[in-house]
Automatic annotation (TrEMBL):
E.C. code: 1.1.1.41
GO terms of biological process kind: isocitrate metabolic process; tricarboxylic acid cycle
Name assigned to this protein: Isocitrate/isopropylmalate dehydrogenase
UniProt lineage: Bacteria, Candidatus Bipolaricaulota, Candidatus Bipolaricaulia, Candidatus Bipolaricaulales, Candidatus Bipolaricaulaceae
Domain of life: Bacteria
SMART domains the record matches: Iso_dh
Enzyme class (EC, first level): oxidoreductase
Length: 373
């Protein structure tokens, strides 16, 4: 029997190509796993009215970790039009599988390492090495939204909140409300995850990202809780910054930062900013991590225009595989993958189109697999 059970969720578009590449490299370093394929993505929406069928949820309850490729999603009208005729007009609504996965399995950490490997032509600066901890379950992404706004809610807000006055007399469909909900528990566990990571990896500093001077209630809570957690880690420096200012400073001097921790929306934004500094979508990898399950994925989507061309960069997926190994306690094999990626990038002989080269997805994966030996 294999040592680990891994759910293998390739999804749509280039998902199967990049996940296949990751698999090749995981095999090359001798990762002892049984991969169980799971259905997820657009095809299952069209055929069954559910892009994340119950059988896939059941599968995820039985595995040690999951590798996830990419999925396609489309606006509501197209989603309805592409449903199989028997399912149309039944009020089915498309919901993002990855968002549902985060909620169902309480994958509260979104971990995004952003490291500039020397020699990669897409590095914004050499030497960048940032790690983003994004809270993954609450904040503005909690899904508590109103459009149109129910009269009852408007009346309550008018009674409880003075600043609501300018909106008081608007008709229900003239505005919309999305609730930003942040809990003490949610803030505490993401902050603790960031500091534990910093401690385990000899990182020097954790920076909390917020807008607490304006968004006082929720971001104020986030900052207060993060600061309290920081006190438990006296050997690690702590500072904090407003999201807007941080975006400027990050670009100006990325070396002033180390580990960044943020509520969901700000974390989403800064992780894309950080990913672009180290090569963009072909390099961006992420882990959605809870206490029971970790789901590891490239951050890019299904890139329909490149599907089947075997030309996209698999490094994001290969590094997602490396993150999975770290999380499973297979650190030595993870380090071998990372060294192999670094070596291939430093040599510069194999480059996919995004790096200005013509190598295929498979050629990149094979070069990394060979370098890992
Ligand atoms: P995308 O990330 O799929 O592609 C945007 C562009 O980035 C591509 O056209 C390509 O130029 C480049 N790119 C993406 N991956 C690359 C790689 N590995 N190597 C080199 N270049 C790469 O985003 P887009 O086009 O906005 O969305 C396409 C579909 O993917 C949509 O249906 C969208 O909803 C979905 N999507 C899914 C995500 C996920 O599965 N986590 C994340 C983002 C989008
Ligand atoms: Mg994003």
């Amino acid at each position: 029997m294999a040592k680990f059970r891994i759910a293998y969720l390739p999804g749509d578009g280039i998902g199967p190509e990049v996940l296949g590449a990751a698999r090749l490299v995981l095999d090359a370093v001798g990762f002892d796993a049984e991969y169980i394929p799971g259905d997820v993505g657009w095809r299952f929406w069209c055929e069954e009215g559910d892009p994340f069928p119950q059988r896939t949820i059941n599968l995820l309850h039985t595995v040690d970790a999951a590798l996830f490729g990419a999925i396609t999603s489309k606006p509501a009208a197209e989603a309805e039009a592409e449903l199989s005729p028997a399912l149309r007009g039944k009020g089915l609504t498309y919901r993002s599988p990855i968002v549902r996965m985060r909620q169902l399995f309480d994958l509260y950490v979104c971990l995004r390492p952003c490291k500039a490997y020397p020699g990669s032509p897409l590095n914004y600066r050499e030497g960048i090495d940032l790690v983003v901890f994004r809270e993954n379950t609450e904040d503005l992404y909690a899904g508590v939204e109103f459009r149109p706004v129910p009269t009852e809610l408007a009346q309550t807000l008018n009674r409880l909140a003075k600043p609501f006055a300018p909106f008081r007399d608007l008709p229900p469909d003239a505005y919309a409300i999305s609730c930003k909900i942040n809990t003490r528990r949610g803030s505490e566990r993401i902050a603790r995850a960031a500091f534990e990571f910093a401690r385990a990896h000899g990182r020097k500093k954790v920076t909390a990202v917020h807008k607490a001077n304006v968004v006082r209630a929720t971001d104020g809570l986030f900052l207060e809780v993060t600061r309290a957690v920081a006190a438990d880690y006296p050997e690690i420096a702590f500072d904090h910054a407003n999201i807007d200012a941080l975006c400027m400073w990050l670009l100006k001097n990325p070396f002033n930062y180390d580990v960044l921790v943020a509520p969901n929306l700000y974390g989403d934004i800064i992780s894309d900013l950080c990913a672009q500094m180290v090569g963009g979508l072909g390099f961006g990898c992420s882990g959605n991590i809870g206490d029971e399950l970790g789901v590891f994925e490239p951050t890019h989507g299904s890139a329909p225009k490149y599907t089947g061309q075997h030309k996209v960069n698999p490094i994001a997926s290969i590094l997602a595989g490396k993150m999975m190994l770290d999380w499973l306690g297979e650190g030595e094999r993870a380090a071998r993958i990372e060294r192999a990626v670094a070596r291939v990038l430093a040599e510069g002989k194999v480059r996919t189109y995004d790096m200005g080269g013509t190598s295929s997805t498979d050629a990149m994966a094979e070069a990394i697999a060979a370098a890992s030996q």
